[in-house]
Amino acid sequence: MERVREIIHADYAHKRGYTGSGITVVVMDTGIVSHPDFDNRIIAFLDFTSRKKTLYDDNGHGTHVSGIIGGSGFVSCGKYMGVAPGCNIIMLKVLDRMGNGNTRQVLSALKWVINNREKYGIRILNISVGMLNSAKKEERSRLLTAVEEVWDNKVVVVAAAGNNGPAGGSITIPGMCKSVITVGSSDDEKLPIKRQGLTRGYSGRGPTENCIVKPEIVAPGTGVTSCSPGMAYEVKSGTSMATPVVSGAVALLLNRYPYLTPAQVKLRLYETAVDMGKERNIQGWGKIDIARLL
After folding, report:
1. Rounded to the nearest 10 degrees, how much is the dihedral formed by the CA atoms of 243, 246, 247, 249?
2. pLDDT confidence bin for 100, thresholds 50/70/90
3. Which among 118, 178, 250, 275 is most buried, taking Cβ atoms within 10 Å?
4. Which residues does the annotation mark as catalytic?
5. Paired sense of beta strands 156-160 and 122-127, if any
6. Whole-prediction pTM
7. The CATH number of domain 2-293 is 3.40.50.200
8. Contact 243, 126 (CB under 8 A)
């Protein structure tokens, strides 16, 4: 995260005392482990796949994503610090060790977020996973409706654009949802050919089937170092990594301006994004810059 923090100017916020403290971020993913970088800030864990009670991550994706959002960098002496190292994290495990899940489990998790929003002070939901557009129409509709409902309940939803680029119309669900903040990778062209199952220009891009321009914003997603279940760090790439960069940035923003609504957060991102000179359906409004955002 050292390179990522430098690119997005996260240190600007940290030096001014904004670390995401008091902001709760829900991560829907493969699970999480008690990595030292999370200290005591994992305030809840629910397993919708196997109903286990103790923390675990049998894939590693969820731990990595959570580290990008809120890892303290303790093990690396600050080198691999997350974007919002003071935020609270709730992990909702909806994916198994292969990274697969089902609509029923995801819908149950989304309902849990709405029902427990006030209890845990939930402000942000990070969804670094996606359903392909080839899924059944009924499943897609139910999922998009449920995500919209979370947004309407005053939770900022940040979703990945998916890794099916560079073709147009390749945004995955729920990233194609109109309300949510959909995140693409700003550096997907820097990926070596066929690295980690990805290809250059992997970041999903719009328009959606309803002709909505997507993504909203882009962030670094290639070669990101973050927490691993082995209590050390590992490198991953994809819009799954870019999405928690934005979730962490929103946590910093809400730390400074706690009364912003999801719509106001989205407007703030629009007003402060840095134009990369690419097509709107590739870069959205542009690349996130935390110094401008705050």
Report:
1. 160
2. confident
3. 250
4. 29, 61, 240
5. parallel
6. 0.96
7. yes
8. yes
